[in-house]
Every structure is written in C-alpha cells, then in structure tokens.
Amino acid sequence: MSDSLISIITVCFNSASTIKDTIESVLNQTHQNIEYILIDGNSDDDTVSIIESYQKRFQQKGITYKWISEPDNGIYDAMNKGVLLVNGEWIVYIGSDDYYKNNTVIENAIPKLIEANSNSIKYVYGKIEHINQNNELVEISGKPWEEQRERFSYIMNINHSGCFHHKTLFSTHGKFNTTFKIAGDYELLLRELKNPSKRAFFINSVLIVMREGGVSGRLSNRLMVVTETQRARKENHIYTFSKELFFWKVRVRIIHLISVIFGDRLSSILADFYRKTILGKQKRWSK
After folding, report:
1. What is the pLDDT of residues 219-240, one digit of tens each?
2. The model's pTM
3. Burial of 277 by CB count in 10 Å (0-12 exposed, 13-18 middle, 19+ buried)?
4. CB neighbours of residue 128 within 10 Å
5. Which residues pair with 7 in a beta bridge?
6. Beta strands in the chain (DSSP E)
7. In the prediction, which pLDDT does 247 show?
8. 117/113 Cα distance (integer angstroms)
9. Of 206, 209, 113, 205, nearest to 167 (Cα)?
10. How confident is the model at residue 4, as a pLDDT?
11. How many helices, marked H, and strands, marked E, lie in the chain?
12. Which residue segments constitute the domains of the chain, with CATH numbers given?
C-alpha cells in the first residue's frame, strides 16, 4: 500500500489566476506514485496553456499527467469524467482554488489509508485551512468522525476537497448525481455514510489550503447549498427534522436581505463575524 497509486483530480474552468498553485502543490508531493488528472470545462482564459506547460515537468518526475478540455454540464459532470480516467486505489479531488498545505500530505496520509483499507473504510478526510482573498486565515475546519457522525445525517460537516475516496465507493454507489450544482459531494457520501455501520476516517492535520471568495458574493450559492442539502437527505430517505438546517436557512436568508437593503459589504462583515465568533465559540464548547 505504501507504493499504491493515488489518483488526484482537479476540475477547473477559467482558473488561470490560481491553477499554478494547485498544480505545483501536486507536482511537489514527496509521494511519487500518483497520477494527476485535470478536467477543464473549455476555459477561455489562459488555464489550458498553463496546464499544457506542466506536461514535461510531470513526465520528468515520472508522474502520469492527463488532461482534457471540453464543455461539461457542471462540476459533478466534470468530476464523473475524472473517475472514468483514474487507475489508482484512492481518488482525491482538489479544487483549482486550493493547494496542498505541504509537500508531504500524501506521504503522511498513507498509514491512515492502510488502516482504512484494513477496516473496509471508503472515505478518509482531514482538516482544511480556509483563507480569504488577502491570504488571511478565516478558520481551520475538520473534526473526528466520532464527533461528526450524528450531525452528518443533517448537514455536510466533513471536508471533501483534498480528501480520499476509495475506488469502491464509486463502484458500489455510482458516480455523482449531476442534477446537483453544489451539494453533490454530500449526496454521494450520504449513500455510504447514512448506514450506521459505516465509518469515515479522520486525519488530524491540515491537508489543503482553500481560498474563499467574498462571502456576500456567494450568498445565492449558500442558499442553494441549504436547498440541495435538504434534497440530498430526501433522496437518501432521511426525513428527520433538522433544527440546525432550519436555522442555517434562516440565517442565510437574513444575510441575503441585509445585502439587498444595505449592500454587500455589511452582509459580508456580519457573515464573517458570525463565522469567527459564534461558530468559534460553538467549536470551543464542543471540545
């Protein structure tokens, strides 16, 4: 297993400003037995030329490097295309705005993947360091599965980007549902982890750094996440009422209303304040 092939997939579209950091962080991993697959959605900026420019460097390191650029039907359609190209035992998705925290992330994860294999666990996740557009730390997310298991049936509370999916997760449950726009990863993982006998494995370290856009600019997306989370639960026959999901939807609607009345800046400040203070306290109280 220490030499097992790890398949890393990046889905991108017009990512010229950030894709170099993503690619470099994969190229510089100390675990060399990886294949890197980029699925581009027919970008019209410099993304494709940047991807092409790395072909020789990956070849020099003996790393399989594949990419395609063509129109798709959304992020989960592109993710499914990547699954069809992989050869590795474990599959990792890393966003084109994200990059590995350091060069030994994959190498250090191998013992956990070995342990997961021996326990028939199909999903291994870790922590994510969230930064804003000024490269300032917003938060570090990620807690052990034992602390997250109960809430997972209500909300996506484990990290997805940069984390490890065993190939049998897809052969057992199928690919991502392309009718979802944002919460397709949650819906896929629900198929496996809604079963009380199933577990996910937690790596207690930061795997990737995730760039975040302005909060106000994502308000409509945040509302869609809530709506799609509710639909993902229904499609997996989970009908219990979630107080957390209900109040999350209320908060997003309030922030959106503030944005409409007072502008994006105030709503962004309030959203960040809530995240850094109220949520921060909740995390400390839960420890």
Report:
1. 667 788 888 999 999 999 998 8
2. 0.87
3. exposed
4. 22
5. 35, 91
6. 6-12, 34-40, 64-69, 90-93, 98-100, 123-131, 137-141, 164-166, 201-211
7. 77
8. 6
9. 113
10. 82
11. 12, 9
12. 6-213 (3.90.550.10), 215-287 (no CATH)
Q: Does residue 129 sit in helix, strand or coil? A: strand
How far is it, in rounded angstroms, from Cα 54 to Cα 74? 25
Burial 232-252 (b: 16+ CB within 10 A, else e): bbeebeeeeebeebeebbebb
Instruction: Judge whether 185 and 75 are in contact, CB under 8 Å.
Output: no
Q: Compute the half-sphere exposure of residue 124: CA atoms within 13 Å on the CB side of its CA.
A: 29
- Report the first-to-last Cα separation within the chain, whole angstroms: 34
- Cα–Cα distance measured from residue 198 to residue 181, given in angstroms and rounded to the nearest whole number: 26
On whether the CB atoms of residues 184 and 177 are closer than 8 A, the answer is: yes
SS3 60: helix
Helix (H, G, I), strand (E, B) or coil at 63: coil
Q: What does the alpha-carbon distance between residue 178 and residue 11 come to, in Å, rounded to a whole number?
A: 14
Closest Cα to residue 142, out of 207, 189, 191, 197? 207
Please calculate the CA angle 200-193-233 and round it to the nearest 5 degrees.
140
Residue ranges of the chain with per-residue pLDDT less than 70: 1-2, 213-220, 256, 262-287
Q: Phi/psi at 83 (nearest 5 deg)? A: -60, -35
* Paired tokens of 119: 């326990």
- Sign of the dihedral defined by the CA atoms of residues 272, 277, 278, 284, in that order: positive
Token pair recorded at residue 106: 């994959």
The pLDDT tens digits for 89-140 are 999 999 999 999 999 999 999 999 999 999 999 999 999 999 988 888 988 9
